[in-house]
Design brief:
279 residues, Rossmann fold, alpha/beta, 7-stranded parallel sheet, 9 helices, 12% strand
Length: 279
Amino acid sequence: MGQVVVITGLADGMGRETAKLLAAAGDTIAGFDMDEAGIVSLQKELMVTPPPSGKTHHLVALNIMDRPGILRFRDEVLAKYGRVDTVLSNVGIGFFGPFEEVDLEAARRCLEINVIGAAAIFQAFLPAMRRQGKGKLIAMSSLVGQVPFPFESIYSASKFAIEGMVMSLRYEVAPFGINVALIEPAQVSTTFAAKIHKLPPEGSPYRERARRFIARDDELIKTAPTPLQAAQRMVQVIHQDRPAFHNQVDFMSTFFLFLNRYLPVRMRDAILLNHMDIK
């Protein structure tokens, strides 16, 4: 029997491809996204591969910041399927800009969505998993959750927070048979970065270095894994009974995490600044 998998942020990109692959493998998908049109179109695609139980996949339009809505979604999922096997927290937004010039209200929204959003969906389904005596909680993190990149201070902060939260959480839930894992891509070939890459204004002391960073990042995106390739790796993690805690998607994240673990900080930083053309 396939798993019942809850996925947040599945209307497009990696989340959408992951949902499609899981459905094709016989898993049941329950998920939400605030992109209503994306939810409707994905629901139509998933109708081609209905769950073995004969029940339909359960997709709804919902904002991760709607806490009562998340609890209603949880109740609907448990009433419909009776259980949930894996929760994948995939919702998140990017954030780019020199820290000195950051709009802190916008920064707070990023942290609310990326960190508290993951906490909300995990907390909602934890009681049911604990009663079941098994389950998996998987959070989408990032390379910058361990290796901070310049001009991504707020986004890095959100991913560092995800990593710390999940590292702590795993100790609490392990006695109940619940496994916890992180997925840590560096880059995936989507429009995620393009939506946030904005040059600082004319006269900003950071403008030239930020321009070079964006140009380099745009170049790296061309050879980054596609959403489908990233989803294939994510599905592998979801289908493992006891996945590793740290899971990379691409060579770049594996390489930099290796450097982060074994090289002196000054040497690691020099490689990073050179790699991103911002020495």
